[in-house]
Amino acid sequence: MERIPVIEIFGPTIQGEGMVIGQKTMFVRTAGCDYRCRWCDSSFTWDGSAKHEVEWLTPEQIWQQLKQLGDDRFGHVTISGGNPALLKGLSALVTHLKEKGVRIGLETQGSVWHDSFDDIDDLTISPKPPSSNMETNFATLDMIMDRLATHRGRVSLKVVVFNDQDFSYATYVHQRYPSVPFYVQVGNDHIHEADDVTLRLNLLQKLEWLVEQVIQSKHMNDVCVLPQLHTLLWGNRRGV
Ligand SMILES: C[S@@+](CC[C@H](N)C(=O)[O-])C[C@H]1O[C@@H](n2cnc3c(N)ncnc32)[C@H](O)[C@@H]1O
Ligand SMILES: Nc1nc2[nH]cc(C(=O)O)c2c(=O)[nH]1
Ligand code: SF4
Ligand SMILES: [Mg+2]
Predict the structure, then answer these.
(1) How far apart are CA 53 and CA 47, in angstroms?
(2) Whose CA is nearest to atom 6 of ligand 3?
(3) Which domains, from first to last, does the chain contain?
(4) Ligand 2: which residue has its CA nearest to atom 13?
(5) pLDDT tens across 163-203, in order?
(6) 27 alpha carbon to ligand 2 midpoint, in Å?
(7) Which PANTHER family match (predicted)?
C-alpha cells in the first residue's frame, strides 16, 4: 500500500484560513516542500527540524489516527503541508478518505499539478508573493487554473500579503484569474512570538492595513480579506 510522509495529524479544530474559514475539520500535515518561503509558519515540514517526527503512513493508518483523535466528531479533513501535491501517494489517501465519506480540503501553492485535485471538495491554491523570496511559475499556474476551470468542488486563490509589493502581486494574480474566488490573507511576520496578546495586536493592525488597501483599490472589488483565525485564537502553537 502507498505510504505518505506525515508530520502531524490534529483536530478536530476549525479551518482558520480562506474560503471555508470556520469549517470544523481535522488536519493531516505532510512533510516536504518544493518552496522555502522566508516566512513559512510550517517550516518544520521541510527544514529538517522535525524529521524525527515524520512517519510514513498508509491511508488506513492515517484514517485510524484521525478516528482516534476525532472519533465521530468530524466530517471534514484538510490535507496541508509542506506541499501535499508532491506526493505520489496522495491519490490513495484521497480515495480512502472519500470511501469513508468525509469531505476533503487541500492546501497547496500551485507549483505542481496533482490528479487528485479533481477529487478535492475544498481546494485552495496559494501562490507566493515577493516577500516569500519565491518566484511564481505562471506557465505552471496557468495550466493548473485551466485544468481547475471545470472542477466540481470549491476552488479558490489565496495570497498572503505582508507589504505593498505583495499587494501588487495579489492584484496581478486576481486580474490574471478573475473568475476564481480570491482571498487576501494577513501575513504573520511574528511566527516566533510566544505572547498571544502581543501577537493578536500585531495581527489585527496588519488586518486593518490590509482591509484599507482593499477598500482603496479599484481592482479589488470582488475579493475577501481574512486573518488567520487560528493564529488570532491560539497564537503560534503547532497542531491547532
Ligand atoms: C503552511 S502552507 C502549506 C500548504 C502549501 N505549501 C501552501 O503554501 O499553500 C498553508 C498556508 O499557510 C500560509 N502561510 C504560511 N506562512 C504564513 C505566515 N507567516 N503568515 C500567513 N500565512 C502563512 C501559506 O501561504 C498557505 O496559504
Ligand atoms: N486551524 C488551522 N487552519 C489552517 N488553515 C491552513 C493551515 C495550514 O497550515 O495549512 C491551518 C492550520 O495549521 N490550522
Ligand atoms: S509553500 Fe507553503 S509549506 Fe512550502 S515553504 Fe511556502 S508556505 Fe511553507
Ligand atoms: Mg498553518
Answers:
(1) 12
(2) 37
(3) 4-234 (3.20.20.70)
(4) 240
(5) 999 999 999 999 999 999 999 999 999 999 999 999 999 99
(6) 8
(7) 7-CARBOXY-7-DEAZAGUANINE SYNTHASE
